[in-house]
Design a protein that fits this description.
Two copies of one chain form a homodimer. Chain A has three helices and nine strands; from the N terminus they run E-E-H-E-E-E-E-E-E-E-H-H. Chain A is mainly beta. Chain A has a domain of about 90 residues: YaeB-like (Elongation Factor Tu (Ef-tu), domain 3, Beta Barrel), CATH 2.40.30.70. In chain A, strand 7 and strand 8 form a beta hairpin. The longest helix of chain A is centred in the N-terminal third of the chain and has 4 residues. The radius of gyration of chain A is 16 Å and the shape is globular.
Chain lengths: ~150, ~150
């Protein structure tokens, strides 16, 4: 079964290519915008009242699928692709939780975008603390990362 | 531009149809499993060490796209589809944060699945508290819902 997806817009960012792009919104994301096709603007109604949004997008420049990958946060060990956020995943679907600044027409400005300019945007969802802010999560190998060393 | 997506597996749940399905994992989700196609099993390496996972899936029985919807948590008002988690969204992509119980071969058992049985699974990502657990989020209209009345 193949599912056909048509982007709802694209992501505008400072990152021109894969070598430049940020690692995660919380680490080294930068100001940018989600640009929504005009026909979907009505769908943004009420979104400005949220502090965070979930962007679902396509790693469009990624060709490879690797079931084990070596993410930049742990250069010494491979991890299963579903235990990582690395882009070489089947279907190349990415997800970032972004901090919403404001919405103007079809532009959703965010302060911590981490993807390459022109990344196809597949969906926006509101970040809902009642569903998405889990209590006492265990984050596997990410819990062993020295985050003070990772931050720029 | 159309992007072709091939499911990595499907979600096994107690919910036979849309009328029965849960509203959210945290509200009335139930025990179930993500069943991964055998060729992707290596990608699960390390996932068992996470307490929560992010399932991205396709609302495969949903035909409609509505840019304004009336989610069950607020039956008195329409909300923009991108300010809600309602399924009538462009591309019909769903996302749930699930509590991982254990992994056995190609089966990822979770305690709070909220989707219909046989929902096509597009991706699994680990829930990483350093990226996904936002501090002091404002959740728009969801913050006005009486959650004590909503819980079953």
């Amino acid at each position: 079964m193949t599912i056909s997806i048509n982007p709802i817009g694209f992501i505008q960012s400072d990152f021109a290519d894969q070598k430049q792009s940020a690692r995660q919104p919380a680490i080294d994301g930068r100001h940018g915008a989600l640009i929504i096709h005009d026909r979907f603007i009505d769908g943004l109604d009420g979104l400005a009242e949220f502090s965070h949004i979930i962007a679902i997008y396509h790693f469009h420049l990624q060709q490879q699928v690797l079931l084990r990958a070596r993410p930049c946060f742990d250069p010494d060990k491979d991890h299963g692709i579903f235990a990582s956020r690395y882009p070489t995943r089947p279907n190349h679907i990415g997800m970032s939780i972004l901090t919403l600044e404001n919405i103007c027409g079809n532009k959703v400005y965010c302060s911590d975008i981490d993807v390459i300019n022109n990344t196809p945007l597949l969906d926006i969802k509101p970040y809902v603390k009642q569903f998405d802010r889990m209590e006492n999560p265990k984050s596997g190998w990410y819990d062993g990362v020295d985050w003070t060393a990772v931050k720029i």
